[in-house]
Design a protein that fits this description.
This protein is α+β, with helices and mostly antiparallel strands. The chain has 4 helices and 2 strands; from the N terminus they run H-H-E-H-H-E. Strands 1-2 form a two-stranded antiparallel sheet. The longest helix has 28 residues.
Length: about 120
């Protein structure tokens, strides 16, 4: 029997799945030595990205409502009738009612005679 053999089994290949190129070795060594660093950086980048998206969303929505005008509620007025008379022509009345409620911090659409409400001026 031979003491040494040059036979290589295809079933016992220990280097299977390894990338033997220089770049592959460098990436493998960087990844294996810096796993915690990479995970931390991914978390930080995700938080920064989500924060910036939220910030941009606030900026774009804030530019729609530029100012408001004060309106005194008369007898027989409802939030719907006020919204119908003062809303921009291209805007849905329901949306304008919600804008009024949001601007005046109202939970319901109930208003009283003599109450002063703010009507948003939307561009």
């Amino acid at each position: 029997m031979l003491k040494y053999s040059t036979y290589n089994s295809i079933y016992n290949n220990k280097e299977e799945g390894k990338d033997n190129t220089l770049l592959g070795k460098a990436l493998h060594s960087f990844y294996s030595s810096n796993k915690r660093f990479i995970v931390r950086m991914l978390i930080i980048l995700s938080v920064v990205f989500l924060s910036l998206t939220g910030f941009m969303n606030v900026i774009t929505n804030a530019s729609k409502v530029v100012s408001y005008e004060k309106f005194v509620v008369s007898y027989g007025d409802s939030l719907w009738s006020i919204a119908t008379n003062h809303k921009p022509s291209q805007m849905d009345t329901r949306e304008y009612v919600e804008q009024i409620k949001k601007l005046n911090i109202m939970a319901t659409s109930d208003i009283q005679t003599g109450q002063v409400i703010n009507l948003p001026n939307i561009e």
